[in-house]
Amino acid sequence: MMVSSPFGGGRAPGNLPRLPTPPTGWPIGSYATYREAKQAVEFLAGSEFTVSDVTIVGVDLMLVERVIGRLTWGRVLAVGAVSGAWFGSFAGLLLSLFANQAFVLQVLTGIVLGVLSGLMFAAIGHSMSRGRRDFSSASQLVAGRYDVLCQPRSAEQGRELLAKLALKPPS
């Protein structure tokens, strides 16, 4: 995966654009899921097709937020304590590198202080929300459909191959 830079110009390795650029090419297939589009491109690759001419484009993007569960005070404080413990153990480990005292004491002190500060920040943050968001969730960007585009020079061949794929019985 290549990340584009707003400071770079021209093209990246593999002749990919550096800045966000609309895709080019002719549609040779359209699929309901990314998995199906990926399987189509894998079929093209297995058929000795020039897959560097192919682009998978997600169309009709939507942000899907899946609710994981209710956000209770217990869960908020537990997450705050665990994240504080991780940060505290890291800080204690760093401090123990520069101190000539007991290694274990430094790390344990860091964990205890981390848990306390994690609890405090989690409680303050949750109480400030005043019940406006009493659930936890995970967000995902998905498309309504996935189009497979191909450069004009090989689009017809790509269409023919994908038509053969569509006629194959599922395995």
What does this 3D model show about the protein?
- The protein is an alpha+beta fold and 171 residues long.
- The protein is built from 4 helices and 5 strands, in the order βββαβααβα.
- The chain has helices spanning 34-46, 73-98, 103-129, 152-167; strands at residues 11-12, 16-17, 26-31, 54-70, 135-150.
- Strands 3-5-4 form a 3-stranded antiparallel sheet.
- A hairpin with a 3-residue loop joins β1 (11-12) and β2 (16-17).
- α2 packs antiparallel against α3 (103-129).
- The longest helix has 27 residues, at 103-129.
- The protein is elongated, with a radius of gyration of 26 Å.
Write the layout of secondary structure elements.
Layout: E1 11-12, E2 16-17, E3 26-31, H1 34-46, E4 54-70, H2 73-98, H3 103-129, E5 135-150, H4 152-167
Helix pairs in contact: 2-3
Overview in brief:
Residues 1-20 are annotated as: Disordered. InterPro entries: GSP17M-like_dom. This protein is α+β, with helices and mostly antiparallel strands.
Instruction: Identify low-pLDDT runs.
Output: 1-9
Beta percentage is 25-35%
CA radius of gyration is 26 Å
Give the end-to-end Cα distance, rounded to a whole number of Å.
Answer: 30 Å
**Overall 3D shape:** elongated
Total number of helices: 4
Structural class: alpha+beta
Mean pLDDT across residues: 87
Helical residues, percent? 40-55%
Oligomer description: single chain
Largest sheet: 3 strands, antiparallel
**Element-by-element helix/strand order:** EEEHEHHEH
Strand order of the main beta sheet, please?
3-5-4
Secondary structure: number of strands: 5
